[in-house]
Amino acid sequence: MNEVVKEEYLYDNIEYLKWLINFTSKYPIFSDDYFLLFRNNNTEIDCNNAENLCLLYYEIAKYAKENNIKPFYIDDNIVYKIRVDNIGFLIGNLDGKGRIFFCNRVEVDNSLEFINFEDIIKSKNLTLRLMI
Per the structure, how many domains does the chain have? Predict the structure, then answer.
């Protein structure tokens, strides 16, 4: 599957979000590099979806930039706060010798501003309709 089709599938498909919600209920903090290093200890679906966390990050970053939503920073690394239903996620990357993407499931807190993931999907659908 080419990268463009893969990205479209990943974010328009509720199955990925269901996976993320389910997976983070067991593993509330994870990074994509763990699944590269310990592939044999996990299912193929979990490994593939965890490795695709970068696509989710880039989609959120694109939406945030288009909508003038500022990320926050942890040690100069960009992090986005998203919400799916009433579940919050911190999704970011750590730059060092390589780039590692991470996800941290968090409580939705009124003191933090979360990007509603439904808005990202609606925005993509609107953009696709305008292009047709």
Answer: 1
